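Teaching assistant here, posting this on the class forum so everyone can see the example we discussed in section. The complex has two components, and the goal was to see what a joint structure prediction looks like when all of them are supplied at once.
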Amino acid sequence: MEIEKKKLYELNRRAFPDEICFKPIGIILTPFKTLKGIPIQSSISKVKGRIEIFKDYENALKDLEKFSHIYCIYHFDLIKLPVPLQSKPFLDNTKKGVFAIRTPFRPNPIGLSIFEILQIKKNVIDILGVDVLDKTPVLDIKPYVSEFDHRSQTKNGWLNGKVKYKES
Amino acid sequence: MEIEKKKLYELNRRAFPDEICFKPIGIILTPFKTLKGIPIQSSISKVKGRIEIFKDYENALKDLEKFSHIYCIYHFDLIKLPVPLQSKPFLDNTKKGVFAIRTPFRPNPIGLSIFEILQIKKNVIDILGVDVLDKTPVLDIKPYVSEFDHRSQTKNGWLNGKVKYKES
Protein backbone atom coordinates (compact mmCIF):
# COMPACT_ATOMS: atom_id res chain seq x y z
CA MET A 1 0.00 0.00 0.00
CA GLU A 2 1.10 3.48 -0.79
CA ILE A 3 0.65 4.64 2.80
CA GLU A 4 3.26 2.21 4.12
CA LYS A 5 6.03 3.47 1.92
CA LYS A 6 5.92 7.12 2.77
CA LYS A 7 7.02 9.08 5.73
CA LEU A 8 4.47 9.74 8.42
CA TYR A 9 4.65 11.18 11.88
CA GLU A 10 4.05 8.54 14.50
CA LEU A 11 0.43 8.16 15.47
CA ASN A 12 1.16 7.80 19.19
CA ARG A 13 3.12 11.06 19.25
CA ARG A 14 0.45 12.99 17.45
CA ALA A 15 -0.55 16.28 19.06
CA PHE A 16 -3.48 18.41 17.97
CA PRO A 17 -2.04 21.50 16.24
CA ASP A 18 -2.62 25.11 17.35
CA GLU A 19 -1.70 26.37 13.94
CA ILE A 20 -1.22 24.80 10.51
CA CYS A 21 1.01 26.52 7.96
CA PHE A 22 1.27 26.01 4.23
CA LYS A 23 3.44 27.41 1.44
CA PRO A 24 1.71 28.53 -1.77
CA ILE A 25 2.35 26.14 -4.67
CA GLY A 26 1.33 28.62 -7.36
CA ILE A 27 -0.58 31.74 -8.30
CA ILE A 28 -3.88 32.29 -10.15
CA LEU A 29 -3.74 34.99 -12.83
CA THR A 30 -7.13 36.42 -13.80
CA PRO A 31 -8.62 39.51 -15.48
CA PHE A 32 -10.05 40.62 -12.12
CA LYS A 33 -7.68 43.30 -10.82
CA THR A 34 -10.08 44.57 -8.15
CA LEU A 35 -12.84 43.00 -6.06
CA LYS A 36 -15.62 44.47 -8.19
CA GLY A 37 -17.25 42.43 -10.94
CA ILE A 38 -15.99 38.97 -10.06
CA PRO A 39 -18.54 36.21 -10.73
CA ILE A 40 -19.54 34.78 -7.35
CA GLN A 41 -19.13 31.14 -8.40
CA SER A 42 -16.97 29.31 -10.94
CA SER A 43 -20.01 27.35 -12.20
CA ILE A 44 -21.51 30.55 -13.62
CA SER A 45 -18.31 32.13 -14.91
CA LYS A 46 -17.22 32.09 -18.55
CA VAL A 47 -13.97 33.87 -17.80
CA LYS A 48 -10.55 32.48 -18.62
CA GLY A 49 -7.43 32.69 -16.52
CA ARG A 50 -4.38 30.64 -15.73
CA ILE A 51 -2.71 28.96 -12.83
CA GLU A 52 1.05 29.18 -12.76
CA ILE A 53 2.36 26.35 -10.62
CA PHE A 54 5.77 27.23 -9.23
CA LYS A 55 8.58 25.45 -11.06
CA ASP A 56 9.51 23.39 -7.98
CA TYR A 57 6.11 21.64 -8.25
CA GLU A 58 5.84 21.29 -12.03
CA ASN A 59 6.39 17.52 -11.95
CA ALA A 60 3.33 17.14 -9.71
CA LEU A 61 1.14 18.12 -12.70
CA LYS A 62 1.93 14.95 -14.69
CA ASP A 63 -1.28 13.17 -15.87
CA LEU A 64 -3.57 16.04 -14.90
CA GLU A 65 -4.15 17.06 -18.54
CA LYS A 66 -6.50 14.12 -19.14
CA PHE A 67 -8.96 15.42 -16.57
CA SER A 68 -11.47 18.04 -17.66
CA HIS A 69 -11.86 19.82 -14.30
CA ILE A 70 -9.90 20.53 -11.13
CA TYR A 71 -10.59 21.57 -7.61
CA CYS A 72 -8.42 24.54 -6.81
CA ILE A 73 -7.91 25.36 -3.13
CA TYR A 74 -6.59 28.86 -2.55
CA HIS A 75 -6.19 31.63 -0.02
CA PHE A 76 -8.40 34.72 0.12
CA ASP A 77 -5.34 36.73 1.03
CA LEU A 78 -7.05 40.11 1.42
CA ILE A 79 -9.31 39.04 4.28
CA LYS A 80 -8.48 40.52 7.68
CA LEU A 81 -9.15 38.30 10.67
CA PRO A 82 -11.16 37.90 12.80
CA VAL A 83 -14.30 37.87 10.67
CA PRO A 84 -17.91 37.99 11.95
CA LEU A 85 -19.30 34.46 12.39
CA GLN A 86 -22.50 35.37 10.56
CA SER A 87 -22.89 37.53 7.49
CA LYS A 88 -25.10 38.21 4.49
CA PRO A 89 -24.34 36.09 1.43
CA PHE A 90 -24.44 37.56 -2.09
CA LEU A 91 -27.67 35.73 -2.87
CA ASP A 92 -29.80 36.64 0.17
CA ASN A 93 -30.47 39.52 2.51
CA THR A 94 -30.42 37.91 5.92
CA LYS A 95 -27.39 36.88 7.93
CA LYS A 96 -26.32 33.26 7.90
CA GLY A 97 -23.60 31.37 9.68
CA VAL A 98 -20.43 31.66 7.59
CA PHE A 99 -20.12 27.84 7.44
CA ALA A 100 -23.54 27.83 5.70
CA ILE A 101 -22.47 30.31 3.00
CA ARG A 102 -19.59 30.54 0.53
CA THR A 103 -18.33 33.99 1.54
CA PRO A 104 -14.57 34.68 1.47
CA PHE A 105 -14.99 36.14 4.97
CA ARG A 106 -14.37 32.93 6.90
CA PRO A 107 -12.38 32.09 10.04
CA ASN A 108 -9.86 30.41 7.72
CA PRO A 109 -10.17 32.31 4.42
CA ILE A 110 -9.81 29.25 2.20
CA GLY A 111 -11.39 29.30 -1.26
CA LEU A 112 -12.55 26.31 -3.27
CA SER A 113 -13.36 26.58 -6.98
CA ILE A 114 -13.94 24.04 -9.72
CA PHE A 115 -12.19 25.13 -12.91
CA GLU A 116 -12.32 23.60 -16.37
CA ILE A 117 -8.89 22.74 -17.76
CA LEU A 118 -8.35 24.24 -21.23
CA GLN A 119 -4.75 23.11 -21.60
CA ILE A 120 -1.66 22.43 -19.56
CA LYS A 121 1.79 23.44 -20.84
CA LYS A 122 4.73 22.86 -18.56
CA ASN A 123 3.82 24.58 -15.27
CA VAL A 124 0.84 26.56 -16.58
CA ILE A 125 -2.79 25.45 -16.47
CA ASP A 126 -5.11 27.50 -18.69
CA ILE A 127 -8.50 27.49 -17.01
CA LEU A 128 -12.12 28.44 -17.68
CA GLY A 129 -14.62 29.48 -15.02
CA VAL A 130 -12.58 32.00 -13.11
CA ASP A 131 -14.18 33.54 -10.02
CA VAL A 132 -11.14 34.83 -8.15
CA LEU A 133 -9.03 37.93 -7.86
CA ASP A 134 -5.83 38.19 -9.90
CA LYS A 135 -2.66 36.98 -8.14
CA THR A 136 -4.46 34.74 -5.67
CA PRO A 137 -2.13 32.27 -3.89
CA VAL A 138 -2.84 28.59 -4.64
CA LEU A 139 -2.61 25.95 -1.90
CA ASP A 140 -3.58 22.76 -3.70
CA ILE A 141 -4.85 21.30 -6.98
CA LYS A 142 -6.86 18.07 -7.05
CA PRO A 143 -8.50 16.34 -10.00
CA TYR A 144 -12.30 16.69 -10.01
CA VAL A 145 -13.69 13.17 -10.36
CA SER A 146 -17.41 12.93 -11.05
CA GLU A 147 -17.69 9.50 -9.40
CA PHE A 148 -16.15 10.89 -6.22
CA ASP A 149 -17.61 14.37 -6.27
CA HIS A 150 -21.19 14.24 -7.53
CA ARG A 151 -23.95 13.96 -4.99
CA SER A 152 -27.49 13.56 -6.23
CA GLN A 153 -30.66 14.52 -4.38
CA THR A 154 -28.96 17.19 -2.35
CA LYS A 155 -30.77 19.75 -0.23
CA ASN A 156 -29.40 23.19 -0.80
CA GLY A 157 -30.72 24.99 2.28
CA TRP A 158 -31.32 28.72 2.01
CA LEU A 159 -29.91 28.67 -1.56
CA ASN A 160 -32.88 26.69 -2.89
CA GLY A 161 -34.19 28.54 -5.96
CA LYS A 162 -31.86 31.50 -5.38
CA VAL A 163 -28.88 30.53 -7.51
CA LYS A 164 -28.37 33.03 -10.33
CA TYR A 165 -25.55 34.88 -12.03
CA LYS A 166 -24.16 37.60 -9.83
CA GLU A 167 -20.90 39.49 -9.47
CA SER A 168 -19.14 40.91 -6.46
CA MET B 1 -22.41 44.67 -1.39
CA GLU B 2 -21.15 42.49 1.37
CA ILE B 3 -17.53 42.93 0.30
CA GLU B 4 -17.60 46.68 0.94
CA LYS B 5 -18.61 46.36 4.56
CA LYS B 6 -15.93 44.07 5.80
CA LYS B 7 -12.34 44.56 6.59
CA LEU B 8 -9.86 43.87 3.85
CA TYR B 9 -6.18 44.46 3.47
CA GLU B 10 -5.48 47.18 0.93
CA LEU B 11 -5.06 45.86 -2.57
CA ASN B 12 -2.13 48.15 -3.36
CA ARG B 13 -0.18 46.95 -0.33
CA ARG B 14 -0.75 43.30 -1.10
CA ALA B 15 2.36 41.13 -1.03
CA PHE B 16 2.49 37.54 -2.16
CA PRO B 17 2.80 35.37 0.97
CA ASP B 18 5.69 32.98 1.68
CA GLU B 19 3.59 31.10 4.16
CA ILE B 20 -0.11 30.97 5.03
CA CYS B 21 -1.18 29.86 8.49
CA PHE B 22 -4.56 28.73 9.76
CA LYS B 23 -6.00 27.70 13.11
CA PRO B 24 -8.14 24.56 13.25
CA ILE B 25 -11.84 25.33 13.71
CA GLY B 26 -12.76 21.83 14.87
CA ILE B 27 -11.93 18.16 14.95
CA ILE B 28 -13.32 15.14 13.06
CA LEU B 29 -14.05 12.12 15.25
CA THR B 30 -14.24 8.81 13.40
CA PRO B 31 -14.01 5.06 14.08
CA PHE B 32 -10.65 4.96 12.25
CA LYS B 33 -7.99 4.94 14.94
CA THR B 34 -5.17 3.86 12.61
CA LEU B 35 -4.42 4.38 8.92
CA LYS B 36 -5.52 0.87 7.96
CA GLY B 37 -9.01 0.22 6.65
CA ILE B 38 -10.13 3.77 5.88
CA PRO B 39 -12.33 4.02 2.75
CA ILE B 40 -10.35 5.96 0.16
CA GLN B 41 -13.21 8.32 -0.73
CA SER B 42 -16.23 9.69 1.11
CA SER B 43 -18.52 8.85 -1.84
CA ILE B 44 -17.99 5.13 -1.20
CA SER B 45 -18.05 5.20 2.59
CA LYS B 46 -21.05 4.24 4.71
CA VAL B 47 -19.28 5.09 7.93
CA LYS B 48 -20.59 7.60 10.46
CA GLY B 49 -18.57 10.11 12.40
CA ARG B 50 -18.89 13.58 13.80
CA ILE B 51 -17.32 16.97 13.48
CA GLU B 52 -16.96 18.93 16.69
CA ILE B 53 -16.69 22.58 15.82
CA PHE B 54 -14.87 24.44 18.58
CA LYS B 55 -17.27 26.46 20.75
CA ASP B 56 -15.79 29.77 19.58
CA TYR B 57 -17.13 29.05 16.09
CA GLU B 58 -20.49 27.47 16.97
CA ASN B 59 -22.47 30.49 15.74
CA ALA B 60 -20.96 30.07 12.27
CA LEU B 61 -23.02 26.85 11.89
CA LYS B 62 -26.37 28.66 11.83
CA ASP B 63 -28.50 27.63 8.78
CA LEU B 64 -26.21 24.76 7.80
CA GLU B 65 -28.71 22.13 9.00
CA LYS B 66 -30.95 22.66 5.94
CA PHE B 67 -28.20 21.50 3.60
CA SER B 68 -27.78 17.78 3.02
CA HIS B 69 -24.02 17.78 2.35
CA ILE B 70 -20.91 19.73 3.23
CA TYR B 71 -17.42 20.17 1.92
CA CYS B 72 -15.02 19.60 4.77
CA ILE B 73 -11.48 20.92 4.31
CA TYR B 74 -9.00 19.42 6.75
CA HIS B 75 -5.35 18.78 7.45
CA PHE B 76 -3.63 15.42 6.90
CA ASP B 77 -1.62 16.08 10.03
CA LEU B 78 0.49 12.90 9.95
CA ILE B 79 2.18 13.68 6.63
CA LYS B 80 5.87 14.56 6.82
CA LEU B 81 7.10 17.08 4.28
CA PRO B 82 8.55 17.19 1.71
CA VAL B 83 6.62 14.55 -0.21
CA PRO B 84 7.58 13.05 -3.59
CA LEU B 85 5.94 14.98 -6.44
CA GLN B 86 4.77 11.77 -8.08
CA SER B 87 3.37 8.68 -6.43
CA LYS B 88 1.16 5.67 -6.97
CA PRO B 89 -2.52 6.23 -6.23
CA PHE B 90 -4.65 3.60 -4.48
CA LEU B 91 -6.46 2.77 -7.70
CA ASP B 92 -3.54 2.29 -10.10
CA ASN B 93 -0.02 0.90 -10.20
CA THR B 94 1.94 3.59 -12.02
CA LYS B 95 3.18 6.85 -10.62
CA LYS B 96 1.20 9.99 -11.31
CA GLY B 97 1.75 13.62 -10.45
CA VAL B 98 0.34 14.25 -6.98
CA PHE B 99 -1.89 17.06 -8.34
CA ALA B 100 -3.50 14.42 -10.61
CA ILE B 101 -4.32 12.07 -7.72
CA ARG B 102 -6.11 12.41 -4.40
CA THR B 103 -3.33 11.08 -2.18
CA PRO B 104 -2.82 12.65 1.27
CA PHE B 105 0.90 12.92 0.39
CA ARG B 106 0.74 16.38 -1.16
CA PRO B 107 2.99 19.45 -0.91
CA ASN B 108 0.24 21.01 1.24
CA PRO B 109 -1.46 18.05 2.93
CA ILE B 110 -4.97 19.45 2.63
CA GLY B 111 -7.91 17.04 2.50
CA LEU B 112 -11.30 17.61 0.90
CA SER B 113 -14.28 15.35 1.59
CA ILE B 114 -17.98 15.63 0.93
CA PHE B 115 -19.94 14.42 3.93
CA GLU B 116 -23.69 13.92 4.32
CA ILE B 117 -25.16 15.81 7.26
CA LEU B 118 -27.19 13.52 9.56
CA GLN B 119 -27.95 16.15 12.17
CA ILE B 120 -26.49 19.23 13.77
CA LYS B 121 -26.83 19.85 17.51
CA LYS B 122 -25.11 22.88 18.95
CA ASN B 123 -21.48 22.61 17.83
CA VAL B 124 -21.61 18.99 16.66
CA ILE B 125 -22.30 17.82 13.11
CA ASP B 126 -23.13 14.11 12.81
CA ILE B 127 -21.90 12.98 9.42
CA LEU B 128 -22.10 10.02 7.03
CA GLY B 129 -19.42 9.07 4.51
CA VAL B 130 -16.35 9.25 6.69
CA ASP B 131 -12.99 8.63 4.98
CA VAL B 132 -10.59 10.22 7.45
CA LEU B 133 -8.54 9.30 10.47
CA ASP B 134 -9.94 9.98 13.94
CA LYS B 135 -9.00 13.36 15.47
CA THR B 136 -8.26 15.04 12.15
CA PRO B 137 -8.04 18.86 12.41
CA VAL B 138 -10.72 20.75 10.46
CA LEU B 139 -9.88 23.95 8.56
CA ASP B 140 -13.18 24.90 6.96
CA ILE B 141 -16.77 23.79 6.35
CA LYS B 142 -18.72 24.94 3.30
CA PRO B 143 -22.21 23.98 2.17
CA TYR B 144 -22.20 21.63 -0.83
CA VAL B 145 -24.50 23.21 -3.41
CA SER B 146 -25.38 21.03 -6.39
CA GLU B 147 -25.89 24.02 -8.69
CA PHE B 148 -22.41 25.28 -7.86
CA ASP B 149 -20.60 21.99 -7.53
CA HIS B 150 -21.89 19.55 -10.14
CA ARG B 151 -20.06 19.34 -13.43
CA SER B 152 -21.49 17.14 -16.14
CA GLN B 153 -19.58 15.50 -18.98
CA THR B 154 -16.33 15.45 -17.08
CA LYS B 155 -13.24 13.55 -18.18
CA ASN B 156 -11.74 11.61 -15.33
CA GLY B 157 -8.24 10.97 -16.71
CA TRP B 158 -6.44 7.87 -15.45
CA LEU B 159 -9.37 7.13 -13.10
CA ASN B 160 -11.72 6.31 -15.99
CA GLY B 161 -13.30 2.92 -15.26
CA LYS B 162 -11.09 2.37 -12.21
CA VAL B 163 -13.25 3.77 -9.43
CA LYS B 164 -14.19 1.05 -6.96
CA TYR B 165 -14.46 0.54 -3.24
CA LYS B 166 -11.06 0.32 -1.62
CA GLU B 167 -9.58 0.94 1.81
CA SER B 168 -6.21 2.21 2.89
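For the discussion questions: The domain at 21-146 of chain A is CATH 2.40.30.70 (Elongation Factor Tu (Ef-tu); domain 3). Chain A touches chain B through 96 residues (CB under 8 Å). Think about how each of these relates to the inputs above.
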